[in-house]
Structure formats: C-alpha cells, structure tokens
Design a protein that fits this description.
The complex is a heterodimer of chains A (539) and B (170). With 539 residues, chain A is of the alpha/beta class. Chain A folds into 4 domains: 107 residues, no CATH class; 122 residues, no CATH class; 125 residues, no CATH class; 85 residues, no CATH class. Chain A contains 10 helices and 26 strands. In chain A, helix 7 packs antiparallel against helix 8. The radius of gyration of chain A is 43 Å and the shape is elongated. Chain B has 170 residues and is of the alpha/beta class. Chain B is built from 4 helices and 7 strands; from the N terminus they run αβαβββαβββα. The longest helix of chain B has 23 residues. Classes of the chains: A alpha/beta (539), B alpha/beta (170). Chains A and B meet through helix 6, helix 7 and helix 9 of A and helix 1, strand 4 and helix 4 of B.
Chain lengths: 539, 170
C-alpha cells in the first residue's frame, strides 16, 4: 500500500530583513557622500583676501555679497606670514567663478558715520560683510586685496568716473555728494593728496542715470552749502540742501553753453572754489578782448561783470593782465583787463562779428562803470555810440595778440556825482558878501524865536525879526544883482550852478522815486528789474 | 555855509544813487496832439484814482497787485497827457462853450501776460447840471513784449475811449 498524500517536508527560510548593524555604515556612507559633494564636487572657488586688519570679520560668519546676494563666506582668518596684515580664506559659492576677475574689487562694509552720510547701518545687526564689485578683466584671480574703502581706480557699471583737480583750500571727503538742484547725482569715491603738485585729486563717480546733465562744457565747483556775499547788489545769503549745508559737496553747471559732446569717462577737470570762478572758467572758450583801464583799478576784479546796454554780456577773466609786471610802474600806463564775451542765444561768431564791426566803425567803446554808489568801478560797460559820438581809436589795436576795445570816459552816475562835487568845491564861497551871512544869521534868529516860543508865539517879536530879515534879504539880492558893493558876476555863477543842479536833479528824479518807494535800495542795491509785460507771440 | 550845503547836496544825490546804473525810459502819448487841443484843455479835468496816480507805467502782476515800473515812466505826467488827448477829441466834438468834462481814470495798466485794461468814468456838465455820464472801458493786448509796446497799446486804448466819449457827446 502506497501513501497517496505524502507529507511534504518543511522548508526553513530565513527572514529577508537587513541586520540593524548595517544602519550605521549606511549613514556613514551617506554623510561621506554629502561631505564629498559639499566639499569637492559642489564646492566653489577658494580665494584669499589680504587686508591690513580684520576688524569685525569672523571666520565662518562674515559673508561675501554681490548685489546684496551672499556669494561666499570667510572660512579662516589668519595673520600674514610677515605679520604685516591678515589673510582671509574665503570659500565662494559654486558658480561664482565669473565674478572673480582680476580687477574685481572687495571692500568691507561696516557702519560708517561720515559728514555726508551714514552708511552700513544694516551691518550693526548682521555684522560686517564683504562687498564684491565684479571687474571686467578676462583673466581670473584667486588672490585679492580687501579694501577699507573703494579704490581710486574703481569703476562700476552704474557710475561714470571722472577726475577733478582742486588747488583750493576747501577739503571734501569720500562719499560727499555731487548735487544738481539739491539732488544727488554722484559722489566722491576717492580723494588723495598729490603732495608734489600741491593739489587734491578727487575721483568722482557720476550716476549713469543722470549723465544727460553733463556735457563737455560742464564746469564743477565746490558747493560749500552756504553762500554769503555782500556786494553791490546787496547781501546774498543762500543755503543748499541740509546735507550740503553740513558737509558741502560738488555742484556743476554749463552756464547756458551746453556742448553736444558728452563728458567722457576718465576726463580730468578743474574743481573750482566757487561759482564765480567757475563761471569765469566757463567763458574761457568764448571770444576774448582787452580793455585798457585808465587810472585806478577801483573794484574791478576777475569775475566782474561786463554789461552791454545793461545786460550781462561777459565777465572779466583777468585783471591786471600784464605781459610784464613792470608795466604797473610806468607813469600813466593803463591797466589791461582781459574780458570774455558771451551773450545768451548768440554764437561766438555773431559776437566776434559784432565787436569787429564796432571796432572797425569806431562805434564800440568800453568804460568802467559802477553797479551802485557803494561799489565804485566794479563792472565794465560796453557802449555802442551812434552817428554823433564816435569812439577814439585805441593807441594799440592789439595787446598780447588780443584785440583792444577802446576806452571811453565813464558816464556813470557816480562819476557824474564826483564831477559835480568837484565843481561845487570850486565855487568861491568866500566871495559871497557879508550880507548873505547876515541874512542867514537873521533867518537863524527867526527860526530860534519860532522854536523857543512855539507855544506862546511872540507875534510882535516875530514881526520885527521878519521885517529885519526881509530887509537884509532885499539888500542881499540887490548886492547879488551887481549893486554898488556887489560881487561882479556872482549872480551869473550862481545861476549857472543852479541850472546845472536843476539839470542833475531832473536826471536823478527817477532814482529819487525809486528810493522813496524802497529806501533799502540805498544799501542793498536794486531788488530786481521791472516785470516785463508780455506780448502776443507772432509766429 | 559850504559846510552845510555840500553834505546836503551829496546826501540828496546819494539817496538817488541806486538808480545810477539803471537806464530809465520815458514814454509819451501826445506826439500827435494838435496845438489847438490846448484851447479846450481848461474845460477838462482828469482825475487819476488810486493805483493810477503814478508817473510810472503800471503792470499788473497778480489779481491784487500792480507794479509801478521803476525805470519806465510817463514823460510830463500821465494826467496832463490824458487831458490833452481828451481835449483833442473833445475839440472835434463841437461841445457848447462852458461844458465841463471830467474823466475819472479807474484803471490804466498792462499786465505781465500782455493784457491792457483801461476803465474810465466820463461825465460832462454845464452850469452845474450833468449832461452826460458814461463808464467807458478798453481791453486789448499789446502787440509785442516790453514797455514800449505797452505804452503804445495804452495810448491806442485811451484814444479809443476819448473818441467814443466824443461821439456820444455830439
């Protein structure tokens, strides 16, 4: 008999789970792979920064930022081998190789309180960080200098760098602004003293957004923030934006003479001390002429105005403009003044043609004028003579190669006043007879009587005095008319003087009216021209 | 005496010194007036009311302010000029003798925007009896920029007013 249902043998199978003992090696493997990935395969470039000191920089904490994005971290800080600086090891993030051009710039951003601004406040909480500015060089580098501030040769895509040379006494600081109508359009990125030439060289970064404001004729000057001047036109007191008031800065203008040529990067220009010298400098490319000043120079100086028919038409560039300083010692030698002419809306050619025509026809003269009584001889006035009065041809047509505009006698009010004063002094007052004095004494006595007895007027005394005075006046008048003991010709002289006085008073009547309306004109000068009534625009 | 006279004269002139460097212009409206106008001028009275009683050309600079020009003035006085123009026109109106004409000028000015405005009240009376009273105005625009053009337009305006008044009185 066979067993139809044989019993199957049991097969023992081992469980398929991994031993716990493998967990540890596996974790170690994963960590190893991660470390390898992090430290070798996914590792960015390692660079070295050298600096004079490592204030506020900590290994493992201080970040390197580019456009406010972290691109690396300082991994080690150690002293240089010669102990004269520190070396920072920086581990850059992967993919940042393109930032490490040879001319890339690293500098430390830390809280700075300067006269012009306060910067880096964010670093108070976050700690100092290193700012990276990408260079343009093709070559790459792994060692860089860590700057404390932006270097002089720094260039940035957002800025156009120019150089300004200052020989003045006003010092500006790095980060001081370049302003236009109070807006910051650039800033000083570097300042250094050139001790050999005795000048300060400022590297100025102009914001590219505002480059349209600049052109090849732009002139820069130090904006002290506060402008105070006391001159013939009165007291001028201007202040700029508060930032400039505290720190000063640089401002600029082309003085209405823009150039189509742009202000190129790397241009070196003069930084003027003030607006007046800048305005004069702006005219240096304009037509030049010489005016020979007779007599004393008075208040004429470089920067003084040149007026044509009362309108500003240029400035005095230099006075005296001697070819040889010894000329001053020569008797009655005129003092040469170099002037530049510039009229808004007129080209240089038009100005030259105008002057040439005036010189040729002897109709253009120059004279020294005054803008007010308190400032005599502080401007040059160009006059166009009509058919009646021609200008005398100058003794020399050119001085130092520059055309000379003939000088005419001044017809300014102050000179007329001086002349009148001289004539008054020439009158022989001593020749006036005793009767005049007696009459005046009588009037004095009468006035004294009126004054002392104003409350209780002594009519009888007054009448007596008045009668006496009138008699003396009558006697005086007969004397003046050429009586027996009169002074011959005295009446004629007095009439002449009075006529002249009357004429002068008529001439100055408008001035008197102006003064009565605005007495401050005497001290502060004219407050401005009359408003111009407009007309219809005819195309 | 000379000690007192010289400082006094110099002070007087010094006070006017601020105008020394300013060029002053004067304008006239009576260049075409016939000499015969003087015959009628005694019968005409012109009163410049406040704001026009200046020898300066007046320029309105805002709704409430007028500026008497410092350097642009009427030669010989505005009042006498207006009187002569009015007399010139009245002469052609053939008014009966003894007629007294009064012109009260309320407004006589230009403006910085170029508008010229003149307002007058013109009345005529004889023997204390008012025969005619009419406000007349002129509004115009000066043809060019500057005080010379303003003076020209003011002159044209007043001639128009005077002519209109003469026509109404005939």
């Amino acid at each position: 008999m066979t067993d139809k249902n044989p019993v199957k043998k049991a097969v023992l199978r081992k469980p398929a789970h991994l031993s716990l003992a493998w967990v540890v090696p596996l974790l170690a493997l994963i960590i190893t792979v991660m470390l390898l990935w992090h430290n070798t395969i996914n590792k960015g470039p390692e660079i070295t920064l050298t600096a004079s000191e490592a204030s506020g920089i900590e290994a493992g904490k201080t970040l390197v930022k580019f456009r406010s994005v972290s691109v690396g971290k300082v991994t080690a800080v150690k002293l240089a081998d010669n102990y004269r600086g520190v070396e920072l090891q920086v581990s850059m993030d992967p993919g940042t190789e393109a930032l490490l051009n040879q001319d890339s710039v690293f500098y430390v951003v830390k809280p700075r309180v300067q006269s012009a601004n306060i910067s880096g406040l964010d670093t108070i909480l976050s700690g100092n960080y290193i700012q990276l500015y990408k260079g343009n060089a093709h070559e790459q580098a792994s060692e860089f200098e860590l700057h404390d501030e932006l270097p002089a040769d720094f260039s940035d895509a957002d800025m156009r760098l120019i150089t300004l040379i200052s020989t003045g006494r006003k010092k500006l600081n790095v980060s001081d602004p370049v302003t236009f109508k109070g807006f910051e359009v650039g800033r000083i990125v570097n300042a250094r003293l050139d001790e050999h030439k005795g000048q300060v060289v400022y590297k100025v970064g102009l914001d590219r957004k505002y480059l349209d404001l600049f052109n090849a004729n732009t002139v820069f000057w130090v904006n002290s923030g506060m402008d105070f001047s006391f001159g013939p036109s009165g007291i001028n007191f201007n202040t700029d934006a508060l930032q400039n008031l505290i720190s000063g800065g640089i401002t600029f203008d082309d003085f209405g003479k823009p150039s189509k040529a742009e202000l190129k990067a790397g241009t070196t220009l003069q930084l003027h001390d003030d607006r007046t010298s800048a305005a004069s400098a702006a005219l240096k490319r304009k037509p030049h002429y010489v005016v020979m000043i007779k007599g004393n120079l008075e208040n004429l100086a470089a920067g003084s105005m040149v007026k044509l028919r009362g309108v500003e038409a240029g400035r005095v560039l230099q006075v005296p403009w001697y070819a040889d300083g010894g000329e001053l010692l020569g008797a009655n030698r005129p003092i040469p003044a170099l002037i530049a002419l510039s009229v808004n809306g007129a080209s240089d050619q038009e100005i030259s043609d105008f002057v040439d025509k005036g010189l040729k026809n002897h109709t253009l003269c120059a004279s020294v004028g005054s803008s007010s009584l308190i400032s005599k001889g502080d401007l040059i006035t160009l006059e166009i003579k009509g058919a009646k009065g021609k200008c005398q041809a100058p003794k020399i047509a050119q001085y130092r190669g520059t055309a000379v505009i003939p000088t005419a006698e001044s017809s300014s009010f102050t000179d007329q006043l001086s002349e009148l004063s001289r004539k008054l002094n020439e009158i022989d007052y001593a020749g006036i007879s005793k009767d005049v004095r007696k009459t005046l004494q009588g009037i004095d006595k009468l006035l004294a009587t009126l004054d002392s007895k104003s409350s209780e007027l002594d009519v009888s005394g007054l009448s007596e005095n008045l009668e006496k005075t009138l008699k003396e006046l009558d006697k005086t008048l007969s004397t003046l008319r050429g009586g027996a003991d009169g002074v011959p010709g005295l009446l004629d002289t007095l009439e002449q003087v009075l006529t002249e006085l009357d004429k002068t008073v008529k001439e100055v009547r408008p001035g008197l009216k102006r003064t009565s309306r605005d007495p401050s004109l005497v001290i502060f000068g004219g407050s401005g021209a009359d408003p111009i009534p407009a007309g219809e625009q005819h195309e | 005496m000379n000690k007192k006279l010289i400082p006094a004269v110099l002070l007087l002139l010094a006070l006017s010194g601020c105008a020394g460097s300013q060029e002053n212009f004067t304008y006239t409206m009576t260049s075409d007036i016939k000499a015969g106008a003087l015959l009628y001028s005694n019968d005409i009275e012109v009163a410049l009311l406040n704001g026009t009683d200046s020898d300066s050309l007046m320029v309105r600079t805002s709704e409430v302010s007028v500026h008497p020009a410092l350097s642009h003035q009427w030669s010989g006085g505005l009042e006498s000029q207006l009187k002569l123009i009015m007399a010139d026109e009245m002469g052609s109106a053939g008014l009966p003798s003894g007629t007294k004409v009064t012109v009260k000028v309320l407004r006589f000015e230009g403006s910085t925007s170029g508008e010229v405005a003149e307002d007058c009240l013109i009345s005529a009376s004889r023997g204390g009896k008012t025969l005619f009273e009419q406000p007349l105005s002129y509004r115009g625009a000066q043809s060019g920029t500057g005080y010379a053009k303003l003076a020209l337009e003011l002159r044209r305006g007043f001639y128009q007013i005077a002519s209109e008044a003469a026509a109404l009185m005939r």
